[in-house]
Amino acid sequence: MRKAPHNRDAFGQALYDCYGGKTGHALVIERDDGLVDADSLATAYLSEYKDWPIQQRKAIRLARGKVLDVGCGAGRHSLHLQQKGLDALGIDASPLAIEVCKLRGLRSAKVMSIDRIGPGLGTFDTIIMLGNNFGLLGGLERGRVLLRRFHRMTGRAARIIAETLDPYRTDDPCHLAYHKLNRARGRLAGQLRIRARYKDLATSWFDYLFVSKEEMRFMLDGTGWKAVRFIESGGPVYVAAIEKDRRARREDAPALPGGIR
């Protein structure tokens, strides 16, 4: 089995090993307050449509035209769309994840972080951010910059299909304390600082954002996008269908109001 370069591609190595049938080690997500979550479901990144969560199965039907899959992982969503005849490009910051995509038959896959996405990739009709990948926007202001960039590289009738988690639907004292810590340092309550660990590998620390529906609407304001539909999971996870707001002029959004936590 291939070894991840520079001991940084923990996520990709986990997918690569899982694809090769080696599943003895868990993929661990570590938060900067010390919380660790052992994700024993690395196989989910290679799952077939029938095994996806219900909200993802409903949401993927909204994809159309040329599709950009942001944070594609092992390519499960792009491969499904490719099989349906759509032109899907999967991008991920993990080199080994992209290698797994290609080994599984995804024709268009590219190593690229979300910050490098731009009009040079082409013009897209759909951007999918499933698997909670709305979180890759990282934070409020950085997210708005990226959403405006997405607006410039998509067609007039384009849509974003984005999955996230409402961080406030919890009574876990550990999560509630982290919300309080985030507010104290001027961040949204659901803005995480995390890294992935696998065996002796660890990624760099990065920001990952969970938002309520109210916060998502606020984040979209001024970017030229609006949420037109929410697809529920029965729990805190949900998918937003986001389309271009043709009535709005893209401009800087107002300051965060007191109603946003």
What pattern of helices and strands is seen along the backbone? HEEHEHEHEEHEHEEEHEE
Head-to-tail CA distance between termini: 45 Å
Secondary structure class reads alpha/beta
Largest sheet: 7 strands, mixed
Strand content: 25-35%
Tell me the overall shape.
Answer: globular
The helical percent reads: 25-40%
Distinct helical segment count: 7
Backbone CA Rg = 18 Å
Strand line-up in the sheet with most strands: 5-4-3-6-7-12-11
CATH-derived topology of the domain at 51-189 and 209-244: Rossmann fold
Please, what is the average pLDDT? 92
List the helices and strands and how they pair.
Blueprint: H1 10-19, E1 27-31, E2 36-39, H2 54-59, E3 66-70, H3 76-83, E4 87-92, H4 95-103, E5 109-111, E6 124-129, H5 140-152, E7 154-165, H6 173-184, E8 191-198, E9 201-202, E10 206-209, H7 213-220, E11 225-232, E12 237-244
Helix pairs in contact: 1-4
Quick summary:
This protein is of the alpha/beta class. The chain has helices at 10-19, 54-59, 76-83, 95-103, 140-152, 173-184, 213-220; strands at residues 27-31, 36-39, 66-70, 87-92, 109-111, 124-129, 154-165, 191-198, 201-202, 206-209, 225-232, 237-244. It has a domain at 51-189 and 209-244: Vaccinia Virus protein VP39 (Rossmann fold).
